[in-house]
């Protein structure tokens, strides 16, 4: 009886762990290097993490000052860095995209212990050298595009390889036929994305006009990969905006 209870408890714990975003294998990666601003020497054993709701996702830097944070759900984050004798550093506006690597710039720390953390506003670089025909659209870019209320119109204004019908209901990649576009929303294939994903819920969009990865199958059109924005991702973006505006 005790064995059965113990087995059930273990299975229950694992089921809850699998639902946690920290244990999910889906997401992007943040990489970077932390150095001393005066000497340029790498800083090892610094704590580096991002916040996703009540969860902290991160680790420590190695002997060369390098760090890797993964998996991180798509969104905009603040990277928090702290180290003994160096105080704290907060890097805002770090954009993470599904299956991509974001490299953090300006990770420089000054020796000495400070009461107030230093905030650095940086433009993060999303790296994917192997797929040149990929367009990545972040949440901030989406909000700035006129007519972003329609997904097809949103995609059409970002690349000349895409054309949209007069009523915005059909999308064509480089002259392909109607219906040849594949929509993937949070890993699920969709035929009509408008009915399942309003534009306000979109966190990021990846548009493949060529060189489509094998995992999406074989077809003649393009692929539109949409990652929706969760409540925790929205909170992380708001925190990044708050720090960017001086903490208000």
Could you explain how this protein is built, in words?
The protein is an alpha+beta fold. It folds into two domains: 2-127, Immunoglobulin-like, CATH 2.60.40.1120; 134-232, TonB-dependent receptor, plug domain (Ferric Hydroxamate Uptake Protein, Chain A, domain 1). Helices cover 19% and strands 36% of the residues. The protein has five helices and 18 strands. The strands form five sheets. A five-stranded mixed sheet has the order 4-3-6-7-10, covered by helices on one side. Strands 12-17-18-15-16 form a five-stranded mixed sheet. Strands 5-1-8-11 form a four-stranded mixed sheet, with no helix packed on it. Strand 13 and strand 14 (171-173) form a beta hairpin. The chain is elongated and about 60 Å long. 30% of the residues are buried.
The tally of strands reads 18
> Residue-averaged pLDDT, rounded?
75
Rg measurement, Å: 21 Å
Give the number of domains.
2
The CATH topology label of the largest domain is Immunoglobulin-like
Strand order of the largest sheet: 4-3-6-7-10
Poorly predicted regions are: 1-25
Largest sheet features: 5 strands, mixed
Coarse structural class: alpha+beta
Strand content: 35-45%
Shape: elongated
CATH architecture of the largest domain: Sandwich
